[in-house]
Write a structure and sequence with these properties.
about 350 residues; BirA Bifunctional Protein, domain 2; 2 domains; seven-stranded mixed beta sheet; three-stranded antiparallel beta sheet; 12 helices; 10 strands; about 40% helix; rod-shaped
Length: about 350
């Protein structure tokens, strides 16, 4: 029995030294110290020995067991240490590599242009007004002097939700709501930025959804001279001090007289190029003196009060400002396109 225990102890220690990972070490522990392990069987056989030999054999079994447990614990520590060293070697950090920087976004070019427009007009004493994008037929057309079956409605082929509700085709309804809310009080100086919707051609210069900024001024002493001066200041601030403004007669049902507003081409400086079609001028907005019928519907006496209004397409301004030829780039979420404006804005 003594010889067998000595051999068993040496064999167990040798098996422990051969282990290279924790699963194999666990297998050795189970083989010798488990419920059916070799040392456990030796303890059971000890009961069959002569009483005088049991104490000596029991001490010998305990010595082998303690030595084996100590060897297993030491081997486990060694395996863990080797694993940590190996992991550190594999995950060595090269401190000479460039750091990983977060990719920062940028303000969308359309939002940046809107912010610039707001900044310009707020500097002239205007306030920013907003209204619903889903409008009634009354606010979108009738209050703006465009009754049912009026030919001008053909210019606003619209997205109707039902017979009397549609997605607004312009931000002019905000002007109507503001005047009604003021109840005849003056002065009013507002700009109305926001999305508008029209069933339009899908081509490089048109989109069914686009951004618009409209302006309205209501007071007693206004004239076309005030309107032109306002738009000239806007053009010079937005496109440079060299910019010039030209007014051409036009027609809008809600203004009288009405004008189309051109600015000298920012690309060629008014000399003539492909952008301005060799004319030296680019159309950017429509404007005019608010029609007396519109003022009367909103509670103002047109014999006492006068008003002017204007509306500009934000995409048109952005395309001129940054030399963009296709309006669809603004809405495709193309990172390669948008990243160009990170430093330019």
């Amino acid at each position: 029995m003594d010889f067998r225990l000595d051999a068993l102890g040496e064999e167990a220690l040798l098996d422990v030294r051969r282990c290279e990972d924790e699963p194999s070490l666990h297998a050795v522990r189970v083989r010798y110290l488990g419920k059916k392990g070799l040392l456990t069987l030796a303890i059971r056989e000890m009961a069959q020995q002569h009483p005088e030999q049991r104490a000596r054999i029991g001490k010998q079994i305990n010595d082998v067991k303690h030595a084996l447990e100590a060897a297993i614990m030491a081997k486990r520590d060694d395996i863990v240490a080797q694993g940590i060293a190996r992991k550190l070697a594999e995950e060595t950090i090269d401190v000479t590599l460039p750091g990983r920087t977060e990719r920062l976004g940028a303000v969308h070019p359309l939002m940046h242009v809107i912010e610039e427009i707001e900044h310009i007009f707020v500097g002239m004493g205007y306030t920013v007004a907003e209204g619903p994008e889903v409008e009634t037929d009354y606010y979108n057309f009738e209050a703006l002097n465009i009754p049912e079956h009026h030919p001008a409605r053909a210019m606003h082929d619209s997205f109707y939700i039902d017979e009397t509700t549609l997605l607004r085709t312009q931000t002019s309804p905000v002007q109507i709501r503001t005047m009604q809310r003021c109840g005849g009080a003056i002065p009013i100086k507002i700009i109305c930025p926001g999305k508008v919707y029209r069933r339009d051609d899908d081509d490089p210069t048109h989109s069914h959804q686009f951004m618009q900024v409209e302006g309205l001024v209501v007071d007693t002493h206004l004239s076309m001279a005030h309107l032109k001066g306002t738009l000239a200041h806007f053009a010079r601030t937005m496109f440079g001090s060299h910019s010039r403004v030209r007014l051409r007669p036009s027609f809008f049902p809600f203004t009288e007289p009405s004008v189309e507003v051109d600015i000298s081409c920012a690309v060629c400086g008014g000399v003539g190029c492909r952008v301005c079609k060799q004319s030296g001028w680019v159309e950017v907005l429509g404007a005019g003196m608010v029609h007396p019928d519109v003022l009367a519907r909103c509670g103002y006496d047109p014999t006492v009060v006068r008003a002017f209004a204007f509306g500009v397409g934000v995409e048109r301004i952005a395309m001129l400002r940054y030399g963009i030829e296709d309006i669809r780039h603004f809405y495709t979420n193309d990172r390669a396109f948008l990243q160009q404006f990170r430093m330019r804005l």
